[in-house]
Specification:
By secondary structure, this protein is mainly α. It has helices at about 50-55, 60-65, 70-80. The chain has one domain (about 10-85).
């Protein structure tokens, strides 16, 4: 499956615990990555600066669904369900 143009859900919902360019402390959940451009595309896609966690994430129908809003709901829930116990908190869009 190819990444859906104009979505960007995977660059917003998940947290990134490792440093990335411009975000030395990683990226908090439900926060757009600073590399997400106005067209909701990764500005460092294909660059060696792109974090391995981002490069390893592949678009799948069961993650992306048929619309960006569905993908965000799913990814926000997945983030909350997999957060360390002390970091779990109710998350809403």
């Amino acid at each position: 499956m190819d990444c859906r143009s104009g979505c960007g859900a995977c660059c917003i919902a998940p947290s990134i615990s490792t440093p990335l360019p411009g975000m030395p402390n990683g990226k908090p959940a439900n926060t757009p990555c600073i590399h997400l451009d106005a067209h909701m595309r990764c500005g460092i896609f294909g660059s060696p600066l792109r974090p391995a966690v981002c490069s390893g994430l592949q678009a799948r129908a069961d993650m992306c669904f048929s619309h960006r809003d569905e993908a965000l709901v799913y990814l926000v829930k997945l983030e909350a369900d997999t957060a360390p116990d002390n970091d779990r908190r109710a998350t809403r869009l």
